[in-house]
Amino acid sequence: FALHAVANPVPFKPINLGPGVNTANGEYFPALTADGETLVFTRRLPAGIMDQEDFFQSTLVDSLWQQAVPISAINTPDNEGAQAISPDGTWLVFTACNRRGDGSQGSCDLYWSQLKREGWSNPVPFSNAINSEHFDSQPSISADGQSIAFVSKRPGGKGKADIWIAERGEKGKWSPPYNLGATVNTGGMEMAPYLHPDGQTLYLSLIHISEPTRPY
After folding, report:
1. What's the chain's Rg over C-alpha atoms?
2. What is the Cα–Cα distance from 170 to 28, expressed in whole angstroms?
């Protein structure tokens, strides 16, 4: 793929999203709804010894991204990051680490929140049907909302971190996640999966040597 892409370049001109989104702080992990009009991202804010990471949301109005606002119903004094939003914008899946007393399985886990009429619901972790006591992070939601691809360091993988997929059955119950196997996973670290809306394409990053600098 890399050789073909380099040999067949396509027009690519990044455009800054403007002051409504970008600040002197770090903004990253962008997640868009299918209509391209709602953007949820992580912003890194100075907060004493440790930087604070929170979610912000911006909407597109007349081709301009509006002033981003914090998602206060989800943000906590701890860090939240590596989020994915469903295509219809009603479901947010994200990563939180080292939480206690809320049903977390330990380490970094996947949490979810639903957008209701009164706003985003109180986030809760997925059960041990998906989360494990090991590192679980970086979710990507399929276009139909029935599958989640994510990174995990749980036993049974091919390397230091692998891509796993969990699927939701007819009654809404999540199946135990399965490893994508040697076709995708290697002895290195597969990170940042993205399920394309076509339902047939998966994008990911491969880290051969070093650990990621962020906890998720």
Report:
1. 17
2. 34
- Pairwise CA distance, residues 192 & 109, whole Å: 15
Q: Which two tokens stand for residue 53?
A: 């990471």
Longest dimension (CA), the chain: 52
| Whole-angstrom distance, CA of residue 167 vs CA of residue 183 | 19
**Rounded CA separation 136/42 (Å):** 18
CA 139 – CA 117 distance, rounded (Å): 25
- The tokens for 152 are 């995990």
Closest CA to 92 of 104, 67, 74, 106: 74
DSSP 39: E
Residues in the chain: 216
Give 142-190 pLDDT, tens digit per residue.
999 999 999 999 999 999 999 999 999 888 899 999 999 999 999 999 9
pLDDT tens sequence across 7-16: 999 988 999 9
Rounded to an integer, the average pLDDT of 102-128 is 94
DSSP output for 173-204: PBPPPEE--TTT--SSEEEEEEE-TTSS-EEE
Residue 98 near residue 120, CB atoms below 8 Å: no
